[in-house]
């Protein structure tokens, strides 16, 4: 009986730690115009996205590409897991960042990074 109680307490403690871990998103390196860029994140609560726009009415948006002024350029909906392949459909030379918001409203963001110019402009 004591073993069962101890295991139950450990399970609750592990669950509490898992929920308390804030999301972290890696700053992509070498993001190139019109080339796939993998965005990676860890932690945070399970993702639950209902809309493609980040707004006070939609606190569960997952990822947004923002410019230096933090204006949203693009938002992605329906993401699950801990990675996303972005088409990098922003012109080379632009300085952007990626914002992440989990289903609890906890946010994380990358450092700002510059999109590398490419001769491929098919995605713009």
Question: Would you kindly provide a written description of the structure presented here, covering whatever features stand out?
Answer:
The chain has one domain: Immunoglobulin-like. The protein has one helix and eight strands, in the order αββββββββ. It has one helix at 2-20, and strands at 24-25, 37-42, 63-67, 72-76, 83-86, 95-101, 107-109, 113-114. The longest helix is centred in the first third of the chain and has 19 residues, at 2-20.
CATH classification, class level: Mainly Beta
Q: At CATH's second level, what is the architecture?
A: Sandwich
Q: Proportion of β residues?
A: 25-35%
The biggest beta sheet is recorded as: 5 strands, antiparallel
Query: What's the count of strands?
Result: 8
Task: Detail the poorly predicted runs.
Answer: 3-18, 47-61
Number of helices, where a helix is a run of at least 4 consecutive DSSP H or I residues: 1
- For the record, give the distance between the C-alpha atoms at the N and C termini, rounded to a whole number: 64 Å
Number of domains: 1
The topology string of helices and strands comes to HEEEEEEEE
- Determine the mean pLDDT: 74
Given helix and strand content, the structural type is alpha+beta
Report the CATH topology name.
Immunoglobulin-like
Q: Rounded to an integer, what's the Rg over CA atoms?
A: 18 Å
The shape, in one word, is globular
Assembly status: single chain
As a percent range, the share of helical residues equals: 10-25%
Signal peptide: 1-20
Keywords: Signal
């Amino acid at each position: 009986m004591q073993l069962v109680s101890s295991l139950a307490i450990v399970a609750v403690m592990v669950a509490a730690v898992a929920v308390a871990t804030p999301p972290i998103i890696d700053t992509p390196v070498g993001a190139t115009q019109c080339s796939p860029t993998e965005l990676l994140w860890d932690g945070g609560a399970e993702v639950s996205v209902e809309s493609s726009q980040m707004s006070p009415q939609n606190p569960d948006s997952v990822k947004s590409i923002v410019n230096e002024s933090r204006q949203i350029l693009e938002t992605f909906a329906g993401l699950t897991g801990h990675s996303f392949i972005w088409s990098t459909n922003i012109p080379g030379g632009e300085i952007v960042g990626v914002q992440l918001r989990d289903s609890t409203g906890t946010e994380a963001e990358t450092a700002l990074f510059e999109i590398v110019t490419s001769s491929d402009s098919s995605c713009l």
